[in-house]
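Take just one protein record:
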Amino acid sequence: MQIYKVGGAVRDRLLGRAVSDIDWLVVGATVEQMQAKGFRPVGADFPVFLHPRTGEEYALARTERKSGRGYGGFTFHASPDVTLEQDLIRRDLTINAMAEDEHGQLYDPYQGKADLESRILRHVSPAFAEDPLRVLRVARFAARYAPLGFHVADDTLALMRQISESGELQALTAERSWKEIERALLESEPQVFFEVLERCGALHELMPELEHSLESLATLQQAAQQQQPLAVRWACLLRELEPAAIKALNQRFKAPRECQELAVLVGEFAEKADSALSLTPVELLEMLQKFDVYRRPQRFEDFIAACEAAALGHGQPGYPQAEYLRGASAAARNVDVQPLVRAGLTGQALGEALKGERLSALKAYRIG
């Protein structure tokens, strides 16, 4: 039995990046041997075990064979006679197909270290084209390592284009696709993910709505530079789309509710935010009511962040509307309801009176 560190832990150590998760590979062992050593099986599709003390995952070396459509259409074979090289060749990129033994000895049968040094994302073998999920994974790695100067190899991009044209991308589940999209959005250069998808034809297959709205990538890039959260980045990406297109993308990938809501609101109110300085108090109040700033002030703050990112991403020197809208929100939220309650108002009468007080507050704010 031989145990190796594999994949991302080896890659990131060689890049000088922090290593968070470690994938362990076991060569030359059986399920029974692993269990005899106290490892607990957890893998449903192939043998994966939890270490009895650390809880880390250890997988038996395996080979795979395409047996169906989509990223899940594979039959796996794990046995003691599967070699390290056979296991590594089934991986996506050469930079992810390296291993280290317990002494730190590097095993690199597919020249992953050379591709790291050359800043190239290259597939390991032609079997790459059998898994449509790898199109999204490679695009995500391109976004992650763009600050280091990485690019996708031409022959790998050609295989990604082949997958896109095959229709296999349609076999991906919404949940699996969103997981890759979410991780890509949270990278420091998320726009690269969508640029790579566009270059290989995958954007047309997965997100045709975005094909003619790539100017939103500058907004997304700005949001990333400001380290905005996921919902803001998703809303920035969809900002230029029509409401029906925003709804379609939200539903197609089953985006989290927070992301869906903010994207819809940004699509509906972004233009009003851009003209905030000329809005009447009534228009301001209608916008604040729509966002429910009294119970969900952070959502309005996220909306402002998305609008500001769009302005800055398209070359505007600043966005004074941001502070103006924050002030308007504060003015409306600071209206005290208690005097109205003490005056005996209830129900609809209380609601109308409170609305009137908030409108007065916004009039005073606008004049001030």
